[in-house]
Design a protein that fits this description.
about 425 residues; mainly alpha; Herpes Virus-1; Leucine-rich Repeat Variant; 3 domains; three-stranded antiparallel sheet; U-box domain-containing protein; ubl conjugation pathway; ARM-type_fold; EC 2.3.2.27; Znf_RING/FYVE/PHD
Length: about 425
């Protein structure tokens, strides 16, 4: 029985095997004779399969598909012997140039066709799920997706879904946004071109919305994308986004404590934003970063999390607004003091730097009082008796000397430590 040709070998108009496949501006491939009759004979300017307007009337030959069809036809020819060794002439033929298996080429063609119709199809979630399954763990298909305009197509779906949900539409439309993010999260996003596409405002806004109100899985996918953007090394990526929106989304994610994995990645990106953006520290303080970080530090069990939180607090306390926000929080000094001589050597160094900024650079009576009541001063004095980096020890001695007179006045301050303070004067 004669084998039926694969569906992708058939012209979408005539449903016959294509003799001269050509691709139109929407990415769909037709037989030249059929599409020419559609465009030039009938005077239409739309793509028959998607009904999208054609950006131009160019017909680009699809040489790859033509060679695959030719190979398929040759395989079914009686003169073709399965056991025959390929001759020198057959090795140089276009059909033999195809190093990619037929099924792979068909998958790529199917992916391109799905992308071409993604904007118009009412079944976006299903289409995106199929793309996700096709691309998972397949670098070649991921590259095909990017080169075929997949990032832009997925971005349009996300922007449309966000607009519909924001306009009071059915929130189920947001599922398409989540599925599009799941597809984008599969990509390596290591090149500047891909990162540049995602940094467009119409793409970043849906990502930030997913971080704030997406499902747990969608938040993880969105965080994966943002982390890859941050790690891509594409210069100051924060200059191309609304820093306030990014900071708010990251802090909301940290405050919700959805998962340890999400929190860890959010801390990494937050560090990057605060370091790269000139206005990052000030903006972070304005949207409540100090409060969120202090609360996290008070309950932090992981050493790496504690160290990154302390590093963020140190950077934020370098600006006056950060020091004010730190002084206003009742748990700030206690949370920082708890990490000294307990979590790690790095955590102790960072804790000392934070306390230095709030007790020497710009001291407040409340902070100095809290340092006595929470045991921070006792820990500073204890730090003088253990081996520590010179810079840390110098800051510790300076803090004690500058603020010793204030601390000695408290009746609760131990007598032996009061005598030790006198020795340092």
């Amino acid at each position: 029985m004669e084998e039926e040709p694969p569906h992708l070998f058939l012209c979408p108009i005539s449903m016959e095997l294509m003799d001269d496949p050509v691709t139109v501006s929407t990415g769909v491939t037709y037989d030249r004779r059929s599409i020419e009759r559609w465009i030039f004979g009938c005077g239409r300017t739309t793509c028959p399969a998607t009904m999208q307007s054609l950006a131009n009337l160019d017909l680009t030959p699809n040489h790859t598909l033509k060679r695959v069809i030719g190979s398929w036809l040759d395989r079914g020819s009686p003169s073709t012997s399965a056991s025959a060794s390929p001759s020198a002439s057959s090795l140089s033929s276009p059909a033999h140039e195809l190093a990619t298996p037929l099924s792979r080429i068909l998958e790529a063609e199917r992916l391109r066709s799905a992308l071409a119709g993604l904007d118009e199809t009412p079944f976006k979630v299903t289409a995106l799920k199929n793309m996700r399954a096709c691309m998972a763990g397949d670098v070649a298909m991921q590259c095909e997706f990017v080169s075929s305009g997949g990032i832009q197509a997925a971005g349009r779906v996300m922007a449309q879904a966000l607009a519909e949900s924001g306009a009071g539409g059915d929130f189920s439309a947001f599922t398409a946004c989540e599925e599009a993010a799941a597809v984008l999260a599969l990509l390596p996003l290591a090149d500047a071109a891909s990162v540049g596409l995602l940094l467009a405002p119409e793409h970043m806004r849906p990502l930030m919305a997913l971080l704030q109100r997406g499902s747990a899985e969608a938040r993880l996918h969105a965080m994966d994308i943002v982390t890859k953007i941050s790690n891509a090394g594409a210069g100051d990526w924060t200059a191309r986004v609304e820093v306030d929106d990014v900071l708010k989304s990251l802090l909301e994610l940290l405050a919700d404590e959805v998962s340890a994995r999400l929190s860890s990645r959010a801390l990494d990106v937050l560090l990057d934003v605060v370091e790269l953006s000139r206005v990052g520290p000030t903006k972070a303080v304005e949207v409540g970063a100090v409060h969120v970080l202090v609360e996290l530090l008070a309950n932090a069990d992981d050493r790496h999390d504690a160290e990154r939180i302390l590093l963020l607090l140190k950077r934020l306390c370098k600006c006056p607004e950060g020091r004010t926000a730190f002084a206003e929080h009742d748990l700030s000094v206690a949370a920082v003091a708890k990490t000294m001589l307990r979590v790690s050597e790095l955590a102790t160094q960072l804790a000392v730097k934070v306390l230095w900024l709030v007790s020497v650079v710009a001291p407040s009576e409340k902070v100095l009082e809290d340092m006595v009541l929470t045991g921070a001063v006792a820990k500073l004095l204890g730090l003088l008796h253990v081996e520590s980096p010179p810079a840390t020890k110098q800051k510790t001695v300076r803090m004690v000397r500058i603020n010793g007179v204030f601390w000695r006045q408290y009746p609760c301050f131990p007598t032996d430590l009061r005598d030790y303070l006198r020795l340092l004067d």
